[in-house]
Amino acid sequence: MIVVPDDFPSVFQGSAAQERAKALGDLRVFTERGADDEAELIRRIGDARVAINIRAHARFSDGVFTACPGLKMVSVWGTGTDNIDLHAAGMRGVTVCNTPGVNAFAVAEHALALMLSVGRKIPAIDREMRGGKWPREMLTQLLGKTLGVFGMGTIGSRVAVLGRAIGMDVLAWSARGDEGRIRAAGAKAASKDDILRQADVVSLHVRLADETRGFIGRRELALMKPSAILVNTGRGALVERDALTAALRDRKILGAGLDVFHQEPLAADDPILALPNVVLSPHNAGQTPEVVRDGLLRAVVNVEHFLAGKPTDVVVAPIR
Prior knowledge:
Layout: E1 2-4, H1 16-22, E2 27-29, H2 38-45, E3 50-53, H3 62-67, E4 73-76, H4 86-91, E5 95-97, H5 104-119, H6 122-130, E6 146-150, H7 154-165, E7 169-173, H8 179-184, E8 188-189, H9 192-198, E9 201-204, H10 218-223, E10 229-232, H11 241-249, E11 255-258, E12 278-280, H12 289-307, E13 314-316
Parallel strand pairs: 1-2, 1-3, 3-4, 4-5, 6-7, 6-9, 7-8, 9-10, 10-11, 11-12
Antiparallel strand pairs: 5-13
């Protein structure tokens, strides 16, 4: 049995990936919200051997693995696995796989779009023009500015290349200290604090883990230029929410472009919604037909390989 417990908003239902998954055995797809409740997620998984994880709001905790002893694999659509207790998965004999790199170019393009939208104040100017005004705003030119990239995986490396393509100088920081990868992207290696002090745009592409939670907090925001822009297409928890809200409200930085948040969807009264110097998108940086098609198919291919005894894109394997 294969289950897709969290296809909300739905992308799997009716896809080529669904048709391919049907050939592997019984398939159940849940397209309504509810997988963010542990008891409901457990109910949906039931006695399935494989779960294809579509959305990060479904949290595969130790409680879920304990209650679903038949579950032996979680195939994640996407790169992030912070919604899965990886240690518990390994201890409970569950293999976790993901689809790294599939959405990299789309997310990198979105990061660039957020930089430009914030710097050029496009949403605010658009609203004013629709209200009958003819605004004459001073805008930010990125040519000759410094881009700071944190995280030099496939997405971060692509962002560095795009930054260079529009005439930016790029400073980069790699959690693995991979200076060869930094140089290959046309960037220069720098320390975290040096990047924060020098960059006109800071773009976050590090994985969310215990050591990167709150990667940007009050101290880091205080190091940034008053004219700097922060872009986050990684995970909301990489940035301390209250610190960012205060920095934006008090104009300690120029603005922010955000595709990810601590709470998704955002609550109607979230203070970030009231700030005029923020450009928001609903965690959809990788939402292109090509990414959806290729990523979902790869998640199913990972299931095929697992069932054949040759798992691929393994994030964690059972601990023997």
